Amino acid sequence: MPELPEVETVRRTLMQLVVGKQIDHVTINLPRIIKRPIEPEQFADAIVGQTIQTIERRGKFLKIMMDELMLVSHLRMEGKYGVYDKSDPLEPHTHVIFHFTDGTELRYRDVRQFGTMHLFLPAEESLLPPLNKLGVEPLDEQFTVQVLREKLERRSSKIKPLLLNQEHVVGLGNIYVDEALFKARIHPEREASTLTEAEWSMLFISIKETLQQAVEMGGSSIKSYVNGQGEMGMFQQQLLVYGRKSEPCPTCDHPIEKLKVAGRGTHICTKCQQKL
C-alpha cells in the first residue's frame, strides 16, 4: 500500500499535471470505487464543469480540491493516477476517467480494485469518514516528541501496531514503521509503555528523518508503485531492513530476520533491536 511518501509524491506530480484543468465529463467503469455519493451517476454529474484548483494530502489520502467540491481519494493497495491524451490506448484496470476540456484525461487504474473515492463540500470532508478520525501529520510542525508520547506512552500495546494505527499518527505503513523502529533501535514488539524518554526521542527523530528522506527520493517502488508521471520511486535503494531478510544488518552485520507482528510481516535486526 502506498504510504505517506508515495502519496505525497503522487500529489506533487499531479499538481504539475492537472491543476487548472476543467472536467468535461467522467467515465466510471467500476462503480464500487465511488463511495460517496452512493450513486456513481450523482458523483459524475456533480463534478462536470468543475476546475481542479489544488491537490492536498491527508495521511494516505489525496484531497483534490475543485471549484465547489472536494474529492477524497485513497489508493489502497495498488491504485494509480496517470495523465494521458484522450487518444492514448486505455490500459487494463482503468476504472475511473476524468475527461478534461483540453483533450487530456486523468485516469485511475487499480488492479486490486480496493481504492475509494468520496465527494464532499469544502470543509465537510474533515467531519465525516474517512478523514474524521485521522491522527497527527508526522511532517507537520505540530508533530513533536511530546505529541507522540502523549498519544502512545501510556498504552500497553506493542509499538508497531500503534504506529500503524492511523488514528494516532497518519501516513505510516509497514515499510516506514520497520525502518523507523530499526533506526531508533526499538523492537517492534516492545510495549509502548516500556519505552524510555531517550527512546521516544530517537523514535520521533527516526520517523521524521525516514519520511523526509523518502519524500525527497520519490517514495519506494516495492511492488508496482509509480507517481503521476509513471516514474518509480528510488527510496527502496536506501531501505535498511525492510525487504532485506537474511542480508547483513547495516549496523552490526547480524542477519536481518523477518517475523510477524500483529499479523504484519516485520523486518528487524534482533541484535540491534533487542526485546526486553
Number of strands: 11
* Approximate strand percentage: 15-25%
Do you know the CATH topology of the largest domain? N-terminal domain of MutM-like DNA repair proteins
How many DSSP helices?
A: 6
Q: Given the C-alpha coordinates, what overall shape results?
A: elongated
Structural class: alpha+beta
CATH homologous superfamily assignment of the largest domain: MutM-like, N-terminal
Percent in helix: 10-25%
- The CATH level-2 architecture of the largest domain is identified as Alpha-Beta Barrel
CATH C-level class of the largest domain is: Alpha Beta
Order of strands across the biggest sheet? 2-9-5-4-3
Q: How many strands, which pairing sense, and closed or not: the largest β-sheet?
A: 5 strands, mixed
Mean pLDDT: 93
| Terminal residue distance | 31 Å
Element-by-element helix/strand order: HEEHEEEEEEEHHHHEE
Domain FPG-type: 240-274
Keywords: DNA damage, DNA repair, DNA-binding, Glycosidase, Hydrolase, Lyase, Metal-binding, Multifunctional enzyme, Zinc, Zinc-finger
GO molecular function, one term: oxidized purine nucleobase lesion DNA N-glycosylase activity
Family: Belongs to the FPG family.
